[in-house]
Structures are given as C-alpha cells and as structure tokens.
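Quick question, first post here. What does this chain look like in 3D?
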Amino acid sequence: MRRRTLVVLLLLVGGLLVLSRENARQELEERAPQKIALIPDYKPQRVLRLSIDRLASGEQIVLERDQAGSWYVVEPVAYPAFPELLATLLSNLGESAGLAVVAPDLQALTLDPPETVLEIGLVPLVPSADAELESVRVEIGGVDLDGRSVYVRVPGHPAANGHPAAVGGALVLAVSQALVNPLNRPLDLFRDTRLTGLRGRDVTRIVRSGSVNLSPGEGARELGLQADLEPDGWRRTDGLSVLLDPSSIGSLARGSAELRASSFVDDSPASLVPYGLDPPELRFSLLDQDGRPTVLRIGRRPDERDQSLEDARWYAVREGSPNVVSIAWRDMHVLIQPSDFYYDYVVVRALRESIDSVELVNGARTLVLTRGKGGWTVAESVPQGSEYPASREAVDDLLARLEKATIGAFLPATDFVEAEPAQAIRIQSGGAVLGGTFGPSARDPETGVEGRSFLRAGDTITALVEESFAGLLELELEDLRSKHIYQLKEAAVRSLVLKHGESEREYLRQNDTEWLPRGGRMALPPGSPFFGVLEPLLSLRVEEWLPEVTEAELADEVAVSVVTAAAGQGKNFKIGRLSGRAVCRFEDGQTAKIAESVHEGLLALFR
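> Answer (accepted):
Ran it through. Tokens below.
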C-alpha cells in the first residue's frame, strides 16, 4: 500500500471517530434532564409586587413598585426599598432554574409546610386596562445535602402539565440557593438607608443652621451657613459673600444629600424631643436643580450633648417623614465643620486655558493682556498706547503665578480699605470676573500671618495674600512685550533689499536654498556672509525695547526691506547705532536694542 493511501485512510478513520463521539455527546445531552425556569417568560420589569411570608417567624414583608419604577416596602412599615437589594432579588428570580425532583417527600424537603412563601405579582404578558396581576407562588423549603441548592415548590407551574415529576399540578425544583439569600435578610436590610433621594451633584443650595458643642465643657459653636451654586462656583450668601472651595463644599453637599442611616430607630415616634430633634442641633435645607427643598434634622439626646462627639449617638429625621434613624459619627464629621473650613483659599480658580484677559492696575497705569486668535497681546491703557504681541514665555509665567496664588488667612473682623493709589488684578474667564483689589499691608492677629490685604472679586471678607502676588503689578510693558518681532519662512520671501548710504544690495531667492545677487549670474555659496544675516533678519528678535522716542539719526544706518512673495508686502526697518548701541528702528518710530552681530554682519556686506 502506498504511503499516500495510508495517510488518507488514517484521516478518514480519525474523522469517523470524532463524528461518533460528537453524536454520543448529543445523545447524552438529550437524555440528561433539562433545567426548568422558575418563572417562564420572566422579565424584571413585569414584577410589580413581592410578598415574602416567613412562616416560621410569622414575619411578612411586602414590596411594591410605583409607576416611576421605584420600589417601596409597604408592610409592615411604609418606607423606600433598598434598590441594590431589589435589583439582586429580581435578577435572581430570572436566573433561577433547576431540575425537577421526582416523587418528592414534601415533609423531608421541608415543603410541608414550607419555611418561606414568596408571592410574585406580574404584569400579564398581554396587558389590558382591566387585567389583574398574574400571581406566581413559590414555596421555599430546605437545602440539599451539598448546601448549594434549595428545594422550591411551584403550584400551577406551566411545565407541570404532563411532566412525569409533577404532583398535584405542582413541580418541585432544586434551584440555586442564591435565590433565597436576599429573601432571608431582616426587614431593615430591605429599607433604603439613604435619607433623601438626592445626590450631591443635584444640590444647588445648602442652608445649614444650628450649633453644636464640639468638645465637653465648651460652649456651642454656631454653624450657620448658606451656600449657593453660582456661575463662578459655590459662594457663601448669608449676608457674607466669599467664594467656597469646590472640594470642601462638595463634601458638604454629598455628605448631607447622601446621608445614610446606620440603623432604623423609631417609625412612629410620639415626640422628636427625646432624640434631640425638636429642636434639632443641626438643620439642613437642600434645594435641588428644580428648586425643590429637602430638609433634614440632626441631633443627639439632650442628656448626651455634653459627651464627646464620637461617643454620643446621633439621630436624624427627614421633615415630612416620621422615621427616626441613627447615623454614624464618621458621616457626621464633614457636616459639623466651621463655616470658614469651606472657604476657597485659591485666589484665582480658573484654568489658564480659560482666561481671556488680565488687567494689572497700578495707580494711573494699567497693563492689559488679551488673548486673541493669533496669541496674546499686551497694551498700556494709560496713556492709551499701541497693542503689541506679548511674550509667550512672560505670559505663561504670569498665568502660572496667578494659578499658584493662595490666600494666607481671612480677616472677617477687618474692614477692607483700598490701597492708594488703586491697585488691582482683574481677570476675565469665560464671562466670569476674577481677581480682586489690593489694600495695605496687614497681619492676622490669630495666626501671625502677614501680607497684603486683598478683596477677591465678589467677596465681602478681607483676605491676606503674599506680597509677591502684589509684585505682579510692578511688571512693565517691556517685561510682557514679545522680543520676537516677526518670523518669516524663507520660502515666503521673494527678495531682500539693503541700503547703506549711496550703496544698495538686492538679493533674489532662486529656490528654497539658493540666493542670487541682483546683476550676478551665480548663486551665493553656502559660506557667504549673506547667510549670516539672513536668518536673524527673517526672525528678528530684540534684546530690549527702548522707551525713549527720538528722531536722531542712526550711525552706520542700513535700511532693510524684506519683500515677501505677495507683491507690495514686506517688512521695512532701519538698523544702525544709537548712543553706542546696535538698534533697530521700525516704521512706527519704536526703537529696540538688538544683537551687535546683526549690525556688523550687514555692514560687512557693503565692504
């Protein structure tokens, strides 16, 4: 037999063996008992009612879902249900499936009587206006020997019709014990521990009133505070105005709106006085984005108010609800911080990318930095001056110093007095006005912190800032003005014209790298002195802007005209010496000191 024929036969035999095994596997699966769904055609949204009847203890818990989809405990107490537990229970009902038990001994399986009866009210598959809920009864018994499954009896199960294991129209199934784990929870674990339905980000106003003894033997500390979410951020608004730290006030918003009960104390109190809730030590009124109020009362028993905060038991109730709960000290901590704890100690809370303009006011002079499409510009408004490109490095440094500026202390007992002459930093950022006004030097009597008094925009409380922050006002126009006059790509230049006395030189660009003197026939060699001045002339940079304006002639003057590819356009200026310095004078009369090498290189072309 040929080797090739042998290989083909071996492959055929192997294929037959694989096919035979697959057929055998399918036959075993078809013979194996199939799991039966606890509730056929189940969908969580069909469930409107759950009744958990624990026969051994006589306890019954009934839950219902409203039209908005929220679940509530309705028996033995009316209370919002814990959504996570309900989600788990509804999911387990859909995932529960088991094997039918043949000839079950109901007493041995603890199904006669059952330990728990679960009644499930379902919306009919074909709903109608007058249709009643479909009811599914699940009787729950004991667990099997391995402890992984629990026996349940389902009277009237659709699969019972004709099933060999059906007894009296009911099926007994062995399903995962995951079904009963949430059902065995005590009543309080079915109740939502949240005191409100709010989230911290829903809150737009916080009104806190009351006082608390923070330490035994000390007097009560007044904790009154009203905070509103305004366009420039959270701000105190109860007669005092001060910007609030978004992180700290956010903790207060979350802590009050998302406060949770650690235990449920009394669902029908005869009086709130014994719990220290009438009057309360603290009262929180929270407004959501639609202006709807939610009010919480928080307190301790009157005889515990002299104990340390950690040792006392704290109680809370939501106004309009009779349910008194206890809350953990760890949740109370953020709620009882003094009002100044929430103050914002950042002078300018804005990202540099969002800042549109900065004004530095120092007496009669104001420097104005403005962000435009082409970058930042700077101008001196008094006297009204021209607008110049601003130095990117100088602007970045200024914005970085604004970002890092902090308040050292607040002086609520000090009236703000504006400095003479007036000094201020005004910032426009996305329509908001930031910055503030400076006052004289001052000292915080409590902490000893010294600095410049400062009133932040929108605040009414005097603050202290470092003297270095006020040092920004000492910046001059030249400190912010760009040292780069312009920058041209070589490919955009058509010619360069130089005039010195009666002599004139003109250079024409031939291509990206070659230049030809007018009247010449050969391109300049790479080592020509021309290329030593070409680069600085295409990207002219000044070393110092000269404030003096003079019509004095420049010594060794060279007139420069950089003609761009667009006909009639270009850069025109003169380079020479003034008072022994190499300078550049522009068409508007501005004069700036430049590198000596630029002037010397130009003169060399005429020798």
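Residues 216 and 306 are 5 Å apart (CA to CA).
Confidence is low (pLDDT under 50) at residues 24-32.
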